[in-house]
Structure formats: structure tokens, C-alpha cells
Write a structure and sequence with these properties.
The complex is a heterodimer.
Chain A lengths: L2 H13 L6 H10 L1 E5 L15 H10 L1 E2 L1 E3 L5 E3 L2 E6 L5 E6 L13 H14 L1 H8 L1 E6 L4 E6 L6 H6 L7 E2 L2 H4 L16 E3 L9 E6 L23 E5 L4 H9 L5 E2 L7 H5 L4 E5 L5 E7 L9 H10 L2 H9 L6 E2 L26 H10 L6 E7 L3 H16 L3 E7 L1 H7 L13 E7 L27 H12 L3 H18 L3 E6 L2 E5 L2 E2 L13 E2 L1
Parallel strand pairs in A: 1-12, 1-13, 17-18, 17-19
Antiparallel strand pairs in A: 2-9, 3-4, 5-6, 6-8, 7-8, 10-11, 11-12, 13-21, 14-21, 15-19, 15-20, 16-20, 22-23
Helix pairs in contact in A: 4-5, 10-12, 11-13, 15-16
Chain B lengths: L1 H28 L4 H6 L5 H10 L6 H13 L13 H36 L4 H15 L2 H15 L15 H35 L2 H8 L4 H38 L5 H11 L2 H29 L6
Helix pairs in contact in B: 1-12, 5-6, 5-8, 5-10, 5-12, 6-8, 7-8, 7-10, 8-10, 10-11, 10-12, 11-12
The chains are: A alpha+beta, B mainly alpha.
Organism (chain A): Limobrevibacterium gyesilva
Subcellular location (chain A): Periplasm
Keywords (chain A): Signal
Chain lengths: 531, 313
């Protein structure tokens, strides 16, 4: 017996001699509490105003969506009982399930739904697409509401049920009236768990408690769809400040589930027989080398192509996930591999042996050999640090004069918004990555947009890409969607919207007394239990 | 002395004003943008701009500083950009773990370091002196986070005597409170013990060579009384000064220690705030730390009069 257990036993014997049932009660309470370590600090709770994944993950416990995607990414009714769509996809009528209640006891009505969707439509790209063709969004009665559009929108159910932030979460009308560009300050939802504001210590702990009046759907739970059966009374998010500490706490039984263990520590965790380690998100992530299309040298497509010709995804992926080849694969595409409309159309530039000499020749023809490149790298994020270091080396091989700006993610986040020349605080390249769930199609994929000034950071401009995206939105069937996706992929490679540095997976780890953990782009808490 | 204390407390007002202006200006000039962090990675540049405007971050420096200074003068440190919680509430949530950690570290450090320094001086050149010097050099040389990880590995993961992380409020029980803080305090205190032991040794060596110590020895005064009553009291002024200065080091060390042991203290609060550019929180915490530091220095000054009656203010 270990010393601590001995002390515990002794203390129990002395203190609780007259109350032998107490430890059993405490143990039972422990079984009803899940201690979870999220990927990052939960600093706010608004998954409409912000797009941080950790916020989205917390928000999906507290709020619900009208529809919800399942593990095949098919949207299924969630708060809705069902819908009717006109043949031309211009009129969509929805009916809410009976018995939906907010955590304050108020009934969910279509007034709440309309206000929530109006706020969401301002922020989300699919919402904006709906808003752009909206004649009216109207509450017909307390449970029925209708979209009337002036143009078909076949993707309505996916838009309402997608997991990508901004998520179409339904909030009480008074909360939904908040400016879409300001964070909400009240966290009343209708989801399976209520947020315990009193116990929230931002940066340290967030507590969710079971909502007794939540009407569980009869179907089996599957990602964001079906019955969200909560088998815990309480979920405690213990925010880590250090990944090594989180891994140690998991080994020591102080936490039950770590969403994103440090890759370096995964072999250690795998050797522990009390722990289970598995892929977290089957849709994985896509590494991104983001060019600034407005500033030289990468305002010239030949410079961007030259980098692509020499870019070795193997180098990037090994830097990001190590030598475990199960965790990454080459990606001659902008889309998530293994999904229905995955395409490699136009991706030849990333296939075959890398050709630094040919790339230099192309740069020479463009008169860009030796050009100065400002590479801004967030060194406090393991993935961007690894990517940045590989890029720095690659650019030097290509003969660029590299200004490697090592900084933190907060600075990169601000600096990338600047369109000025690098000498005036701008940039040429930064790194990030995109969740595979965001890259299954163009709708949630802001990084793919090539609308120039209105596009994502780097401001790529390509009419062909934009035409492909428009065609995808209007695609009436799967064949048309597939064709549009292929056109987008090809145009994105022609334009080199950004440089995909490869596809990679991450692990999650949990104690073996926890069961029901599934692979998903977000932690799925329903159906999970402790024994 | 009372009048002196009042004067010193009043003198903190311009100090705090300068600190406030300095911190605000530094954050204004520093790169980074909370709007970009709120918006998240998928947001468009236009979204980031709109959020920046909604937060009022596009307004001129003087207006923003004036508003904040007026709030502070009214006892309001503002509201976190991210959580919308008052900064005073966020600090109050975090102050107990930090105070506990620093208090226990001070107790640990003083309890170990001063006897070590006294013994090392008494037995100058002997093995005990060398051991104390080795501990001091190690304490100085090994960073807090390395000590922290080693302690956590040995005493938490391998021996299972202490938890790896977290904090239990003292109201729950002294034992769990102590279990959570023992390793962090030891990690944080090691460098302080090293500093204090070395200063104590050096000061004691000087005092022990004084005539009155020789006289006391000649009169047959007990060795312990010489060391701890006569010599230590006379060596106390530099030691107390170092304790005061070391307090600043403890504040810096607490930031790292709280991160390694996941203690929800003010140190972690400010680190998280810096990473997110949560300006009101950074400004509030730095202001609070600087006020505490000024008060500690005042306390040190006042303590001098206890140890050396010749000092008068």
C-alpha cells in the first residue's frame, strides 16, 4: 500500500469510525463528476461572437442547435421536431419539439429562435449567405417558424446544424439581442448542462451541472444529434496552464480525461495501463502556410508557386507530430481527406519529389531571388512553432532573405490583420492550422475564401475560387457539389490561396474507468460515464 | 514613526500613478489585440475590426487612459474584456491561493535558511558549511520550473505523497491545503532559501568577528545565546532587507510555480491575461502587485527600528 493510501485509510478509520457509509457516498459522488482538461483556457462563453474551439465546445453543453450533425456529418433534427422545404428550397418551415425549456425555466419559443438566428446570421458565413437571400424570417406561432428566401438555399439544414463556430445556438431572446460583435454576459441555454457561473474561475475552473428538465431525444446520441444523455451530475473543466502537469494529473488520477495531451508525452501515457489513448478527432487538422497576397514577394503568384514546388509536407508533419506516421498523411488538397467530397483536383504541385532548383529558377524568372520575407511565428504554440521553423529553413534554401519574427500567438493574431508592408508592421507569412471539420466543404472554411479585401488574412483574390464557392452553395445535388468542390480545389492551387502543409491527427487520453469516449471534432460528453 | 508610516503610505499615491501610466502605456504600445483573440482563428479581418470597435480599442490613448484612471480612482479596476467579470472579483477569486503559496514559502524559507546560514557561519569551513553552500548554489542555479517538475515527479507521481496539481482552500482543511501547497512552496522557496542562507552566513560571519561577541565568549555566555540572541539580532537588518527584496522575486516565481502546479492564483491570472491581452486584468493585477510591493518595503523599513534602536524616522 502506498503511503498516501495508508494515511487516507488511517484517517478514515479514526475520523469516520462512526460513519462507515461516508466514503461510499463520496465515491458515488465522484462517479457522478467528470474532471476534464480542455485544450485551452475557457475565457468566454459566446460561440457566436467568437470562433475559438474551446468556447464552442463549452457552449455546446449549455446551448442547443435546431439541427445537429451526426458522425457522417448529416444534419439531424435536434431542437426541431422536423421541417418542410419547398421544392425550390426557397421556403423552409420548421417546428420545435414540445417541452423545450431554458435553464431559467422559461419555455423555448420561436421568438427566441428568430432572435438567435438573426444574431448568428450576422457572424457566420453560411448565415450571411442565408441573410443575403432572406425575404423574411418569421415566427408563425410559438413552435413554428419560417424562412422565406428569394433564392434557393439547399444547405439550410447543414447551416443550422453544423458544429463549426459561429454555431447557430438558440438563446433566450433577451440574450440573443446582444450586439453580435459583443460577448454575451448571461449564459442561460437549453442544453443538457447548465453553466455554474458562481464557480467559474476563468483560467482555472469551469463547472457544468446537469439540467434536470432537459428533454432527451429518444434516438441514440451521435455527435451533435440524437439523445444527449448526461450520465454525470457535474462536469468540472480543469483548465491546464501546462500540458505536462495535465498529463501528470491524469496519470495520478486527479483528472479523468485530457482532450489534447502533448504529443511528446503520448508514449508515456500509452505505457500506463490505467489510461486509454486514442485519436481524438477523425477529421484531424490541416496545417497552413498563409501568404500575404498584398505584399511582395507573395503578391506574385510565381513566388507562391515556387514555395509550393519546394514544400515538403513530410518535413512539416514530422516536425508537428513526430515520427509516428499513423498521425499524418500528405495532403495534395485543401479539403479534409476521407470526407464525401474530398478531391485532389489540381494538387499535382504538392505531389512527387520536391524540386528546390526548379523553384529557384521560377523565382529567378520572376526577379524575386533574394527577396526579403517577414515570417511571423507564434512560438508559444507547438504546432505553429514547428511549422515556422520548417518554413524558415525552406525559405532560406530558396534564397529568400528571411526575417524570422519569433513572437506569441497574441501578437500574430494582431499582426496578421495588418495590410501594411512588413517594414511598417505587416507580414509576409504566418502559420496556423484548420480543424478538418472546418474543411469538409467551403461553407465553414473561411481560409479558403478568395474574395480579396473581404477574404481571410492574406486577402487572396481569385474569381475562379469564388465562382466555385458560389456554385457549391447553389448545388442542388451531390454530383453538383462534388463538381464545385473539384473546381474550387483546382482554382485554389492555381492561385495558391495558401500552402497546405499536411494532414495530421491528435490524441486524446482518459482513465480506463471512463467509458463512452468517442472520436469527434469536439469532446462529446453525452453517453460518457465513470465506473 | 507613525507619522513616518503615514507619509510613506501617502507617498505610494504618486508611485502608483506612475506605475499606472507606465503599465497602461506599455500595453498600448505592445503588439497584440484582444479583439483578434475573441474573434478566434476563423473570423474574418472585418469581424476583428468590428469587435475592436465594440470594445472601444480604436479610441485615442488619452481618452482610454483617462477613463481607466477615473475608474481606478473610484476604486473600480474595470471589467475583463473576455469574461465580463469585474477585475476586483477575478483578483479576489485568486488572491487566497497566491497569499497561501507566498506565506508558506516565506515560512519554509525563513525556517530553513536562517538556521542554515547561522550554522554555516558558526562552522565556517566545516562540512556543514560546505553542504549549505552547495544547497545555496543549487538553489540559485536550478530554475523554479525544473525544481517543480522534479518534485512533482518524485513526490507526487512516484511516491504518491502529494497531489500533482490544484489548490484546496484552507477553509476545507489544513491538511489538504498543506498537501496541495507543500511541493509548490518548496519549489518556489529553494532559490529564496539559497539567497537568504548566503546572506545570513555572510552577515553572521561579520558579526561573529566583532569585539562584543569575543567578549561574550570570554564571559562564558552560552553558544546558542551568542548565535541567536546577540549575533543574529545584530545581523538582522540586512537579512530583513533581503526578505523584502526577495518578496519581489517570490511574486515572479509564483507566476511560474502556479503554472507548473496549476494553482489558480493571481500569477496564473496575469499570465493568462497577458497571453490574451486582457488589458484591464493586466493593469489591475500589476497595480495591485506594485502596491503590495510598496507596502512590503514600508514594512521592512519599519522593522529596522525593532532590530536596531539606533534607527529612527
Amino acid at each position: 500500500m502506498k503511503r498516501r493510501e495508508l494515511l487516507k485509510t488511517a484517517a478514515t478509520g479514526v475520523v469516520a469510525a462512526g460513519s462507515l457509509a461516508a466514503p461510499r457516498i463520496a465515491a458515488a459522488q465522484g462517479m457522478r463528476t467528470l474532471r476534464f482538461v480542455p485544450q485551452a483556457n475557457l475565457s468566454s462563453m459566446d460561440a457566436v461572437a467568437g470562433t475559438q474551439y474551446v468556447v464552442r465546445n463549452a457552449a455546446m453543453l449549455v446551448w442547443e442547435t435546431l439541427y445537429g450533425v451526426d458522425s457522417r456529418l448529416d444534419p439531424k433534427p435536434q431542437m426541431c421536431e422536423g421541417h418542410e422545404a419547398s421544392e425550390d428550397f426557397r421556403t423552409w418551415t420548421f417546428k420545435l419539439r414540445p417541452g423545450l425549456k431554458f435553464h431559467d425555466g422559461e419555455t423555448v419559443t420561436t421568438r427566441d429562435v428568430v432572435a438567435s438566428l438573426q444574431r448568428w446570421m450576422v457572424r457566420d458565413t453560411m448565415g450571411q449567405a442565408i441573410k443575403g437571400r432572406l425575404d423574411a424570417l418569421e415566427a408563425l406561432d410559438d413552435r413554428t417558424f419560417r424562412f422565406r428566401l428569394n433564392k434557393p438555399f439547399p444547405k439550410m439544414l447543414f447551416a443550422l446544424g453544423k458544429s463549426n463556430a459561429p454555431v447557430a445556438l438558440i438563446m433566450p431572446e433577451r440574450i440573443a439581442r446582444t450586439d453580435p460583435f459583443k460577448l454575451i454576459t448571461e449564459y442561460t441555454g437549453s442544453g443538457p448542462m447548465r453553466f455554474n457561473t458562481a464557480e467559474w474561475v476563468p483560467g482555472s475552473k469551469a463547472v457544468f451541472e446537469k439540467f434536470a428538465d432537459y428533454p432527451v431525444r429518444p434516438e441514440a446520441g451521435d455527435w451533435l444529434s440524437g439523445g444527449k444523455r448526461m450520465l454525470f451530475d457535474r462536469i468540472e473543466w480543469q483548465i491546464p496552464s501546462d500540458a505536462a502537469t495535465a498529463a501528470a494529473a491524469l496519470q495520478n488520477g486527479e483528472v479523468d480525461w485530457v482532450e489534447t495531451p502533448l504529443p511528446d508525452l503520448v508514449p508515456l501515457l500509452k505505457r500506463n495501463r490505467n489510461l486509454a489513448v486514442d485519436i481524438a478527432d477523425p477529421l484531424g487538422n490541416i496545417g497552413s502556410l498563409r501568404f500575404n497576397h498584398l505584399q511582395p514577394p507573395f503578391n506574385d503568384v510565381r513566388a507562391r508557386r515556387a514555395v509550393m514546388m519546394a514544400l515538403s509536407q513530410q518535413d512539416y508533419m514530422q516536425a508537428v507530430v513526430g515520427d509516428n506516421s499513423d498521425l499524418w498523411k500528405p495532403l495534395p488538397s485543401f479539403f479534409t481527406p476521407g470526407t464525401a467530397f474530398y478531391t485532389e483536383e489540381g494538387g499535382d504541385i504538392l505531389k512527387g519529389p520536391r524540386d528546390v532548383e526548379a523553384a529557384k529558377k521560377l523565382l529567378g524568372e520572376a526577379g524575386l531571388l533574394g527577396a526579403k520575407v517577414t515570417l511571423v511565428v507564434a512560438m508559444d504554440v507547438a504546432i505553429t512553432k514547428a511549422e515556422g521553423e520548417v518554413t524558415g529553413d525552406l525559405l532560406k534554401k530558396l534564397g529568400f532573405d528571411v526575417d524570422f519574427v519569433a513572437t506569441d500567438w497574441g501578437t500574430v493574431g494582431a499582426r496578421r490583420t495588418k495590410k501594411d508592408p512588413p517594414s511598417q508592421g505587416g507580414w509576409n507569412i504566418f502559420h496556423t492550422w484548420h480543424a478538418g471539420a472546418d474543411c469538409i466543404n467551403p461553407a465553414p472554411y473561411t481560409a479558403l475564401d478568395a474574395g480579396g479585401d473581404k477574404a481571410w488574412f492574406g486577402w487572396p483574390k481569385s474569381d475562379e475560387v469564388q465562382a466555385g464557392i458560389a456554385a457549391w452553395y447553389d448545388a442542388p445535388d451531390a454530383a453538383a457539389e462534388k463538381k464545385a468542390m473539384a473546381a474550387i480545389n483546382k482554382a485554389s492551387f492555381d492561385n495558391v490561396t495558401y500552402g497546405p502543409t499536411g494532414f495530421f491527427l491528435m490524441y486524446q487520453a482518459w482513465r480506463t474507468n471512463v467509458s463512452g469516449v468517442v472520436k469527434a471534432p469536439f469532446p462529446v460528453f453525452w453517453g460518457v460515464q465513470k465506473t | 514613526m507613525f507619522a513616518y508610516a503615514i507619509r510613506r503610505i501617502l507617498a505610494t499615491i504618486p508611485v502608483m500613478a506612475i506605475v499606472a501610466l507606465f503599465v497602461f502605456s506599455l500595453l498600448y504600445l505592445a503588439p497584440g489585440d484582444p479583439a483578434a483573440i475573441i474573434a478566434g482563428d476563423q473570423a474574418t479581418p472585418a469581424d476583428v475590426d468590428r469587435i475592436r470597435i465594440s470594445l472601444g480599442l480604436d479610441r485615442p490613448f488619452l481618452i482610454r487612459f483617462g477613463e481607466w484612471a477615473w475608474q481606478v480612482l473610484n476604486g473600480d479596476l474595470g471589467v475583463s474584456i473576455f469574461t465580463n467579470l469585474p477585475v476586483t472579483h477575478m483578483i479576489s477569486q485568486r488572491i487566497e491561493p497566491t497569499l497561501s503559496l507566498m506565506s508558506l514559502t516565506l515560512i519554509f524559507s525563513i525556517s530553513f535558511a536562517i538556521p542554515m546560514g547561522v550554522l554555516a557561519a558558526w562552522k565556517q569551513g566545516a562540512w556543514i558549511d560546505r553542504v549549505v553552500m552547495v544547497v545555496a548554489v543549487l538553489g540559485f542555479s536550478v530554475p523554479v520550473f525544473v525544481v517543480g517538475y522534479i518534485l512533482a515527479y518524485a513526490f507526487a507521481l512516484q511516491l504518491d505523497w502529494f497531489p500533482v496539481q490544484g489548490y484546496t482552500p484552507i477553509s476545507v482543511g489544513i491538511l489538504p491545503w498543506f498537501q496541495n501547497l507543500a511541493l509548490p512552496s518548496l519549489a518556489l522557496g529553494l532559490a529564496f532559501i539559497a539567497l537568504l542562507a548566503r546572506i545570513t552566513r555572510a552577515t553572521m560571519l561579520e558579526v561573529l568577528s566583532q569585539d562584543y561577541v569575543r567578549t561574550a565568549k570570554a564571559k562564558g555566555v552560552d553558544q546558542r545565546a551568542i548565535l541567536f540572541v546577540h549575533a543574529l539580532k545584530n545581523a538582522a537588518v540586512p537579512i530583513v532587507t533581503i526578505i523584502g527584496i526577495g518578496f519581489a522575486g517570490l511574486i515572479g516565481g509564483a507566476v511560474v510555480t502556479e503554472s507548473v502546479f496549476a494553482i489558480p492564483g493571481v500569477g496564473r491570472l496575469v499570465v493568462d491575461a497577458i497571453l490574451r491581452r486582457d488589458y484591464p486584468v493586466i493593469q489591475g493585477v500589476v497595480l495591485m502587485f506594485s502596491f503590495v510591493y510598496v507596502l512590503v518595503n514600508l514594512a521592512v523599513d519599519l522593522l529596522y527600528t525593532l532590530f536596531d534602536p539606533r534607527i529612527r524616522y
